[in-house]
Amino acid sequence: MSWNFIGNERAVAAIERALADGTLAHAYLFAGPERVGKAALALRLAQALNCIASVGARHASALQGDDAQGAAPCGECAACVRIAAGIHADVRTVTVEVTDEGPQRKAISVEQMREVERAVALAPFEGRTRVVIVDPADEMTAGAQNAFLKRLEEPPPHVVFVLVATRGERLLPTVRSRCRRIDFRLLPASEIERALESERVEPERARLLARLARGRIGWALEMARDPSQLERRREALQSARSLAGMPVAQRMELAEQLTEEFRRDREKILSLLAEWQGWWRDVLLAQSGAEDGIANVDMQAETQEDARRSRPDEVIVFVQALGDARQHLQENVQPRLALEAMLMEAPGGALSRAV
């Protein structure tokens, strides 16, 4: 059996040790950058706790007097398959609610966490352990966190909570203190490249995706499985290039368009802004002579062109503005205001305002 997990070996080892010596915490905080495998390992843990084969392996080791091993989930038994498909009765993921019109709640609410409290009060129905994954945990309202805190203080013996967060500092200190924290990191490009090649991605494509991923193995795997994603990425980068020197009126129109799209699909716009920020960061690297750090290696000619036609001070300001805009949107600042302020800082903005 294998954890079937790429990178962040220390995180996996911490879970293995806890399973092996019987010191599994009742609540974990998986914290780290986006798309590095936090949610994936949370599901693997849920599988390990309910896997028919893994509990059998641990039991056999105990009977034989062997050292206990943190048996990985088999990934093939009925429990593992149902957990992976999201249909296991005892494994629940709590997230921001979404409808056909997009997220109606911009955070995980008190009502959602009270529903969790009612569910975990019951004994496991299908497996041995109830597992509740809160993802993204840093999107819980203060009220939701306080409601959840009551359950963290008196956890049922048959429940394990896993909080998945990119910005763990947004959780209340009282919530963080009751969770065992496991930190995740970005992966080196070489490690991602090897992982992609093991998935039978051709070497040249694996090398490109590893550079583009900026340490996010989840992003790289998604791109590898869906080639059309790369074309959409190229379109996003072309839109990033079009911002330089854009007239004020056009910037305002774009802000309105992005605002409407954000209300329908938050993640789409947050991802777009991340691509824009990555592009202009590459431009800044080209301007400073640090071409080796450029991620978008398949568009180096365009990067150099934008580096020549933009001032470094403007690019620095815009890269920061893009990061600020993403943070403000995640914190539910008025999207139109955040997007307008960001677009007015695009290179050439001072010139366009003066025209």
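Second entry:
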Amino acid sequence: MAKLKVRNTVLDYKRDSYIGSTPVCSGTLPRIDCSIGSSQWGMSKRAMRTDLRIKENVAYAEPTYENLLKPVILKRFNAKGVTRANLFFGHGSFNLAERIIHKMIEPSVMLGVGPQFNEIPSEFEAAGGRYEPVLVRPPKYEFPMEELLERIRSDVSVVYLDNPNNPLGRAVELPALKVIAGKASRVGAILIVDEAYGDFIDDSRSAAHLVSSFDNLVVLRSLSKCLGLAAARVGYMFVSNELAEWYTQLDVPFEPALPSAILAWATLEDKEFLRKVRSTSAMEKRLIIPSLVEASLTVLPTDPATSILTVFSEDMDVAKAFASVDVIVEPGSAFQKTHPAWGASYCRLRLPPQNQVRELQARLRMLHKQMVPTC
């Protein structure tokens, strides 16, 4: 048989993924899941009452949702100079990132801060590129702005930033993003700002407000992490004018599916739901962080309302320690592609459902009494 004509870049490729990375629980207590990144606050009541217009699925919907989705998003962000021509949709933010990586960006070097979401750099490597992390370092774990700017050079085709950062839950502010976008533009590099957790922070902090000022900006957004539509698979992105002209030719119409688009519209219109999720997330975080500190765990810098944070202890395998009291967290090793030192001493903790906060605090008191040595 002839050798199959498969790209060389995928012959030995293995996707970096969270799936299957969590330790096994003890099974003696009801499990508290603080690992999955989807919303734990349910769906918008307005979305749940929405007529999904099932009969209309026999025909194609609007190719790019010019009338159903674009107006509500543009009105929400009210970003100066951003129009319908700058806005695109897909089956989740990762789907949009994948399309840009494989269809548009030159596969040379992707620069990004570590730790952050592994699968975008992994996808870039599948396209034939190379990922270079710029590391967040102890003891202050500050955003490595100076080093990042120094390493943006002519062979870099894309800078990728989680914002808010996954796993830290910390956001870089717009003045810093302006500087990064400007330096990237001068060398011809595209800046992708992945705002999958962006709904937890105020809309005024979104990089969508920079889209009309730069020629090289892509801002990814998701309705999975905060807004309760993980299974609906709805993502959207703001794209600078010059990139939008090219991407329009690469865009795939009729995404997402009509029922998902209707759910997205209803959820985006439900401003009270977003306000409630943000306030509840902030309240839970205020309660849980002191309990983590009392359990002799270090909480790394994080925004007050994001649903995730990073925990550190040099004296234990943190994810295994949580598993011993039947709490599931994402181990630091899940982020090692973007930060090689992010190992057993680190974990990402997602806030639990509101009715499990007190129980999580009780488990943390248990955890304080039983340390698990670092493997």
